[in-house]
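Quick one - inputs below.
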Amino acid sequence: GNSVTQMEGPVTLSEEAFLTINCTYTATGYPSLFWYVQYPGEGLQLLLKATKADDKGSNKGFEATYRKETTSFHLEKGSVQVSDSAVYFCALVFPGFQKLVFGTGTRLLVSP
Amino acid sequence: NAGVTQTPKFQVLKTGQSMTLQCAQDMNHNSMYWYRQDPGMGLRLIYYSASEGTTDKGEVPNGYNVSRLNKREFSLRLESAAPSQTSVYFCASSGTSGRAGGTDTQYFGPGTRLTVL
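Output:
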């Protein structure tokens, strides 16, 4: 079946450090890929997305590139801030279906 | 423009009690969803409604029922709550109605934290 695997958290970084959160997927076909972010006490918000191979999604300094050859969609940011502390979810959806398949989430903690 | 709203924010039930979680969206979206979020398991789809008048089961539908009251509102009902239904429940909506190629972003509400004793 279709699935998304994310690195276990928490990821603990100091402010201005480089961030990578790994995401790989298993799917037959070519899904669209998403990163959602959940701040404490809130619902999920779309952070970025990519709909085809080699697309790069970007938002708020975060980037992720759709790599079909490695079935990956790793999230990166060059310099994290304390305000980036949140839980990050990788997800996929197939054209013709609307059911998002989520990874288990990765908690990011950024200290001053 | 409030987006997706959910009520209540918190609820405590005893085993066997029933309740309805309410969700409304003001974005004129066709599709709506109910998820539950449990530690270490991400979000799992309970039910969804691709368009007004239709509902379908998701990954974990047992113990729940839904009603798509109109285009704006999609409610989730627990007929006889069980401790295993203790979770955070999220409602979401998106713009397409399920046709091929639809990959619209899902917009989430703030969640309802439910505890069943």
